[in-house]
Amino acid sequence: MKLRKSYFADVRKDDLHEIGQARPRSDSPGHVTGKTAFFADRNFPGMLHLKMVRSPHHHARIRSIDTSEAEKHPGVVRVLSAKDVPHNVYTILILIQIGPEDETVLADGKVRWKGEAVVAVLAETERAAQEAAAKVKVDYEVLPAVFDMEEALKPGAPIVNEYHGQNYYLYDSGECRKVRFGDVEGGFAGADHILEQSYQSSPIEHAPTETTGCVVAPEGNDRFTCYTNTQAMFFTLDNTSIILQMPGSKLHFVGGTVGGGFGGKVDVIVEPIAILGAKLTGRPVCFIYSREEEMQISSPRAAEKVVIKDGVMKDGRIVARKVTGYTDAGAYSRHSPYGAQKGAGHYPGPYTIPNVWIDTYCVYTNRTPSSAMRGFGITIGDFALEVQMDKLARLIGMDPLEFRFINAYRDGDMKAHRQPTEGAALIECMQEAARAASWPVAEKYMAMSSYKKGA
Amino acid sequence: MAKVPVQFTLNGSEKAEFIDSGTTLLHALRDKIGDTSPKGGCHQGTCGACSVIVDGELRLSCLTLAETCNGATITTTSGLAEGGVLHPLQRAFLDTFATQCGFCTPGMIMAAKVLLDHTPNPSREDVVEALSGNICRCTGYEPIIQAVLTAARGNSQNAA
Amino acid sequence: MALALQTFATVKDANAALKSAGTRYLGGGTLVVRAANEGDVSVSGLVRSTDPALSAIGVGAGKVRIGASVTMAQIARHPDLGALAGAARAVGGPAIRNMATVGGNLFAPAPYGDFTVALLALDATVATDDGESPLETFLSRRGDSPAIVTSVSFTLPKAGGLRFLKVSRVKPKGVSVLSIAVVLEQAGDGTVSSARIALGCMADRPVRARAAEKALEGKTLDQDGIAAALVVATEGAAPITDPIASAWYRAEVLPVHLGRLLLS
Question: In this structure, what CATH number is given to the domain that contains residue A187?
């Protein structure tokens, strides 16, 4: 691929010395020699292994927990349950004032998804921790569960998360994030064609080759060093500080080397409980997800449902677009209220449409809590939008790329959420893509620019 | 519990340790001997990050018990560079940007080394097959395949 | 209790040690060490035997005997076992093939155990210190007896006599959607005089497709000739559902792949 400098040549100084040049990566020598230190490459004498007892049910009340046999198991040093966690109910986005706190570090009275952490066992060996975990007795009363977002939003659905009180996140705008721009019903009324389609996706696991985990070492002065593969160091540090009610100065986080993340390592899951274990035992603690835990327990990309209704004219102009988006948060918020909000901001896509109506819901179900993954809130929406664009082009008998040129946003266009468009390059990207793919596009579109005359 | 002795040659030096019976070679190398270049990605024999070379054969150290390797000659990625000079495969992985997060890299290099030891001038298909037990989630494999082919071209140039 | 390994020079002594509760036989480790790594605390002891007979491959007078400890890689490169090389190479990646044994493959639950599918089509015999039994019988009682498998034997098919197909979503290595092995005998006029068809992933262990075998008899190997066999290909099958594919999908695509293999 060659760097084509003709685009935007008049607004760019042609003084690029690094872009377009191959430069060695600073971390590669460590990678190829096996010297790069991942968190699990830290080993400390007397290190304990943490294994989690997890809920076998999607939704259940916990009648009782009996850890007495597990505590007696040879090699077991400590067994932790909800009462041991100083601030057990948390939510990660509380750091940016997105509450309420809705998730337990260790389940307290109830489990809301299959795989939820209930009891943590700390033992001299992994094997002893596994054996002891099998001896923890939890008496569950199974409750009705809901797995489908539309079912969850119906009146009478089982309430997944009492901290919310209803099965959707309550934004300051109400039951969903809303964008209102122009007169969408008026737009539909004047359209030549209406197309309403529904799109949905399943959760997607990041499946990093290195599983989620951390190694914690007490420094001997009430301070703890946590070697972690988190993708969100300071988020994790601050949340750990809240959960453990410890000043941040007592927490020393070492990270930055991540064996594949893709957004899957931005939640605050392993560090607080491992540091608590180190604090209560005075021993180093290692908590690493097994491969099965990585696949089943770590947050996936949310399942989404996107309903798009468009009004389009025979000449190719989209005159009205209404989008209803549903993001399946699973049982707890994590990053999903933000993901659903991103969706609201992203629709109607990179197109200039005069009449827009957006509702995006963040819905709670008894599924594995979802969270960040590469463009979450956007990626599935883009899939839906671009399939819809192809369908609209077909509906009016137009080339799908030319149809996009007609609707592409350009500098100065007002977006639905009332940010004027700046620095757009969609037109130029499509022109280059058309050339690269030898896709015939009418000359008038190849002559377009993201700049508008007079803008 | 009783410890069992294990003794093998690791990257040219003699190693002897007392380990718990049933300890995997991966744990013995990483936790007892301190060679952390083999990685534990799945512990199921699926990802290949723990790949090492035992007596000339590619093995998954996560599924191999250390005590079955008594007397063996073991090679890991940390032992490939000689006197600070990178092995041609390591050089090629650097030059073709075949690493990203780096977690699969040591295992990939082991699988590639066994291939080139037996097949100095492999076809692309040979390379793909040789790496088929190793998972990379970052690169999409293409730069890794190119790295192995690049290293192999170096082989043929040296032979010429 | 930690996992402990005991090594014995003879199969007899290893068999005796296997009688202890929680003890499993260690072949290549790809099943039992994996289970232990994943937290299966029912495995507390491992037993293995270094008896050289377990690692021997004997070929003579059209008969083959493969020791239970022989690996997939050893089969794949053995000059006399070319007919089985494809099935051996279908197992895992290179490292797995250096470890996975013939004996272990007999115990691999679906979707694994592709090599055993080939052995089943070859009508192999399984030997233990208690005697020999047909593979089909052995599989139907798999796990009932703790006796260590010492070898498998079968009549060596002529070159190309074993047709084998592993269908997976990832190439070149992937877990089976299904696997199929076929051994046919044809009369002078080209019609099928006898057929053995073995299927992987069509139950929790490899199974024969008896109805399809019967439907092939006397037929020619063309679209019309195999049609009846394809219709009954899934008769009696109970395909597994796992993250690779659903039972429905496996049943749906089996006739397609069986048809391709028969016409290949």
Answer: 3.30.365.10
How many domains would you assign to chain A? 2
Answer whether the bond into residue C111 is a cis peptide, omega within 30°: yes
Joined together, the tokens standing for residue B96 give: 């073709």
Q: How many domains does chain B have?
A: 2
Q: Which residues of C touch A131 (CB under 8 A)?
A: 1, 41
| A195 touches A272 (CB < 8 A) | no
Q: Which domain holds residue A381?
A: 177-204+300-446
CATH of the domain at B67: 3.10.20.30
A291 contacts on C by Cβ (under 8 Å): 38
Look-up of token digits 């006029």:
C189
Let me know if residue C167 belongs to a domain.
no
Residues C217 and C127 in one domain: no
Positive or negative, the CA dihedral A151, A153, A154, A160 is positive
Does residue B78 contact residue B106 with C-beta atoms inside 8 Å? yes
Residues C224 and C199 in one domain: yes
What is the distance in angstroms between the Cα of B111 and the nearest Cα belonging to chain C? 8
ipTM value for the complex? 0.96
Please state the length of chain C: 264
Asked if A209 is an interface residue toward chain B (Cβ–Cβ < 8 A), one would say yes
Cβ-Cβ contacts under 8 Å, C1 against chain A: 127, 131
With CB atoms and an 8 Å threshold, state whether A130 touches C2.
Answer: no
Nearest CA-CA partner of C55 in C15, C94, C86, C28 = C28
User: What range defines the domain where residue C141 resides?
Assistant: 52-155
Q: Do B133 and C95 touch (CB under 8 A)?
A: yes
Would you give per-residue pLDDT tens digits along chain C (264 residues)? 678 999 999 999 999 999 999 999 999 999 999 999 999 989 989 999 999 999 999 999 999 999 999 999 999 999 999 999 999 999 999 999 999 999 999 999 999 999 999 999 999 999 999 999 999 999 999 988 889 999 999 999 987 899 999 999 988 889 999 999 999 999 999 899 999 999 999 999 999 999 999 999 999 999 999 999 999 999 999 999 999 999 999 999 999 999 999 998
B59 lies in which domain range?
3-79
The answer to whether the peptide bond before residue A24 is cis (omega within 30 degrees of 0) is no
CB contacts under 8 A, B 12-51 vs C, are 20-22, 24, 43-45, 48, 51
SS (H, E, C) chain B: CCEEEEEEEECCEEEEEEEECCCEHHHHHHHHHCCCCCCCCCCCCCCCCCEEEECCEEEECCCCEHHHHCCCEEECHHHCCECCECCHHHHHHHHCCCCCCCCCHHHHHHHHHHHHHHCCCCCHHHHHHHCCCCCCCCCCCHHHHHHHHHHHHHHHHHHC
Q: Answer with the residue of higher pLDDT: C122 or A15.
A: C122
**In the numeric block, which tokens belong to residue C65?**
């005997």
Bond prior to C172 in cis (omega within 30° of 0): yes
CA distance to A53, A226, A349, C138, C230, per residue, from A117 (Å): 6, 20, 38, 42, 48
Q: B97 with B116, same domain?
A: yes
User: Is there a domain that residue A157 lies in?
Assistant: no
Same domain assignment for residues B74 and B102: no
Which pair of structure tokens corresponds to residue A286? Answer: 């290692």
